[in-house]
Amino acid sequence: MKKHKHSKSAAYKEVPAIDKPTPNDVIKKIENGESLENINLDGYNFSYTDMTGAILKGANLSNTCFIDTLLMGAVLAKTKLCNADLQGATLTNADLSYADLDGADLRQAWLVGANLTGVDLTNAVIDGTRIREIDLEGVKYSRKQIDGFRFVKK
User: Fold this and answer.
1) If you average pLDDT over residues 81-107, what whole number do you get?
2) What angle do CA 140, 100, 66 make, to 5 degrees?
3) Among the four 29, 31, 108, 115, which has the fewest Cβ within 10 Å?
4) Do residues 82 and 102 lie in contact, with contact meaning Cβ atoms separated by under 8 Å?
5) Residue 3 exposure: Cα atoms within 13 Å on the Cβ side
6) Which SS3 state, helix, strand or coil, does residue 12 take?
7) How would you list the strands of the sheet with 149-151, edge to edge?
8) Can you tell me the distance from the alpha carbon of 44 to that of 83, in angstroms, rounded to the nearest whole number?
9) How confident is the model at residue 142 (pLDDT cuts 50, 70, 90)?
10) What pLDDT score was predicted for residue 6?
11) CB of 76 within 8 A of CB of 53?
12) How far is C-alpha 91 from the chain's CA centre?
């Protein structure tokens, strides 16, 4: 049997680009309990939605809008949230460990019981951020920023 040689100029079948999911597609996947680890959602708008229990570990969520979004119990460890808008978001028991929050806006957000291990908040906007049951040891923030936190009593 004769072997065929492949020429360098042979045409390869192009693989179609994967369409970016719509915000509704993402919400449906979260509702179905699907893990969306390492997904690129840069620039999406999820404002006023319920993303409770979302598994977005390692995702790129930079420039994404989460205004008044429910992210209770969400896994956001090692995510990139640079310049993300989390104003008024509820992050109760969310895992934000080692997340990149450079330039993130957390004004009026609820961080109750959230895991902030290894987080650097020095360039985040935290005015009025409500926190409770959080260990701030190891979390980087400036002295000036501590005035921005609103410590909420039980």
Assistant:
1) 96
2) 110
3) 31
4) yes
5) 3
6) coil
7) 110-112, 129-132, 149-151
8) 12
9) confident
10) 43
11) no
12) 11
Percent of the chain with pLDDT over 70: 81
Residues 6+ apart with CB under 8 A from 145: 121, 122, 126
Per-residue pLDDT, averaged over 10-35, amounts to 75
Tokens linked to 88: 């008024």
Task: Spell out where 52-128 has E strands.
Answer: 110-112
Q: Cα(86)–Cα(106) distance, rounded to whole angstroms?
A: 5
Q: To which H or E segment does residue 63 belong?
A: none
- Measured in residues, the chain has a length of 154
Q: Which domains does the chain have, with CATH numbers?
A: 36-144 (2.160.20.80)
Could you report the per-residue pLDDT of 21-32, keeping only the tens digit for each?
A: 999 999 999 999
Maximum alpha-carbon separation in the chain:
81
Backbone dihedral region for residue 99 (phi beyond 0: left; psi -120 to 50: alpha; all else: beta): beta
